[in-house]
Amino acid sequence: MRAPFPYPRALRLLPAAALLTALSACYIVPVGPRGGYDPGPMVADGPPPAQYEVVPAAPGLGYVWIGGYWTWRLGRHAWVGGRWAAPPAGHTWVPHRWDRGSRGWSERPGYWQRGR
């Protein structure tokens, strides 16, 4: 018979929780059949007005505030809060946006652009 794990159950789950937290910070951009960005589903209604955000102090010099935006999740618009980010050298932030087309609205995620 194996001896029971000497730590409480909460501590045994800590490594798995840390891994899930790290993976949830990843952002994957879908790629279309020709290698370009796939805008995802067309949405009948445009996003609501942007929400008011209190911008906290920057965590350090050179950080850029990336404002919050509306995204499409589970069949509805969902707000994603803003955050501070350290830009890659020589890059500027191009904000998230929604484009209106003849078939509805499509979402375009923000990205870092070289130069500009």
Question: How would you sum up this structure, described in words?
Answer:
This protein is α+β, with helices and mostly antiparallel strands and 116 residues long. The protein has one domain. The chain contains one helix and eight strands; from the N terminus they run H-E-E-E-E-E-E-E-E. The protein has one helix spanning 9-24, and strands at residues 64-66, 69-73, 76-80, 83-85, 91-94, 97-101, 104-108, 111-114. The chain has a two-stranded antiparallel ribbon with strand order 1-4. A two-stranded antiparallel sheet has the order 2-3. A two-stranded antiparallel ribbon has the order 5-8. Strand 6 (97-101) and strand 7 (104-108) form a beta hairpin. The longest helix has 16 residues, at 9-24. The radius of gyration is 20 Å and the shape is globular. The model is unreliable at 17-36 (pLDDT under 50).
Q: Care to give the gist of this entry?
A:
The chain has 116 residues and is an alpha+beta fold. The chain has one helix and eight strands; from the N terminus they run αββββββββ.
**Number of separate strands:** 8
Could you give a short account of the major beta sheet? 2 strands, antiparallel
What is the global morphology?
globular
Distance between the termini: 65 Å
**Alpha carbon gyration radius:** 20 Å
Considering the chains and any ligands shown, give keywords for the structure.
single chain; two-stranded antiparallel ribbon; two-stranded antiparallel sheet
